[in-house]
Write a structure and sequence with these properties.
The structure holds 2 protein chains of 2 kinds.
Chain A lengths: L3 E4 L2 E4 L5 E7 L4 E9 L6 E7 L5 E2 L8 E7 L2 E6 L8 E9 L8 E2 L3 E5 L1
Parallel strand pairs in A: 2-11
Antiparallel strand pairs in A: 1-3, 3-8, 4-5, 4-9, 5-6, 7-8, 9-10, 9-11
Chain B lengths: L3 E4 L2 E5 L4 E7 L6 E7 L5 E8 L4 E4 L2 E6 L4 E6 L8 E8 L7 E3 L3 E6 L1
Parallel strand pairs in B: 2-11
Antiparallel strand pairs in B: 1-3, 3-8, 4-5, 4-9, 6-7, 7-8, 9-10, 9-11
Classes of the chains: A mainly beta, B mainly beta.
Chain lengths: 117, 113
């Protein structure tokens, strides 16, 4: 149980285009989902916290107009990287907290590798 | 502000060796600490979670310890195997009551046959 999927697993796009990444909780409802970014040889850095039915909360330094997050249902959150540039190339990982579950338990997706040319 | 450090950044050992990975945190008032495994280009697999009231947790060949007073946690891997090769990350909540996790940069472990 507690499986989180991401789609796509990898994507290559041209500079200036937008890319949407989906994060789904497959067998549970997720009130809260988290989006992380990981650069090579670096730790995961939290980008934003996504709550179903409300606006996402972004961490300091993360541009909310560039990284659009939509948490439309209890099983789906999407991250759209708008006008992507090469410096946005990174590994994006989402995690989800079970609805009604522990505040401290997150289940992680397999990640999406974004390469912007 | 909680900060998490992992040393060394990389470790290479021969198969069969017992090894210890280190994780340090700056704020001892933690709620729990979690160890994850990350294979290249993959997401995170949770290995062990230690609550603040616990001193250690065990799962198979893995044993994680927690010493809040010294701000340290260790992950002990017994009888290492090539399949243990991966990056190991530790993480703890930013502060008690927070959902946000703070991660270390990880230790890349290579177990040579």
């Amino acid at each position: 149980g507690a499986v989180v999927s991401q789609h796509p697993s990898w994507v290559i796009c041209k500079s200036g285009t937008s890319v949407k990444i989906e994060c789904r909780s497959l067998d549970f409802q997720a009130t809260t989902m988290f989006w992380y970014r990981q650069f090579p040889k670096q730790s995961l850095m939290l980008m934003a916290t996504s709550n179903e039915g409300s606006k996402a909360t972004y961490e300091q330094g993360v541009e909310k107009d560039k990284f659009l997050i939509n948490h439309a249902s209890l099983t789906l959150s999407t991250l759209t990287v708008t006008s992507a540039h090469p410096e946005d190339s990174s590994f994006y990982i989402c995690s989800a907290r079970v609805r009604g579950g522990s505040t401290y338990t997150q289940y992680f997706g397999p990640g999406t590798r974004l390469t912007v040319l | 502000k909680q900060e998490v450090t992992q040393i060394p950044a990389a470790l290479s050992v021969p198969e069969g060796e017992n090894l210890v990975l280190n994780c340090s945190f700056t704020d001892s008032a933690i709620y729990n600490l979690q160890w994850f495994r990350q294979d290249p280009g993959k997401g995170l697999t949770s290995l062990l979670l230690i609550q603040s009231s616990q001193r250690e947790q065990t799962s198979g060949r893995l044993n994680a310890s927690l010493d809040k007073s010294s701000g340290r946690s260790t992950l002990y891997i017994a009888a290492s195997q090539p399949g243990d090769s991966a990056t190991y990350l530790c993480a703890t909540p930013l502060e008690v009551g927070s959902e946000k996790l703070v991660f270390g940069k990880g230790t890349k472990l290579t177990v040579n046959p």
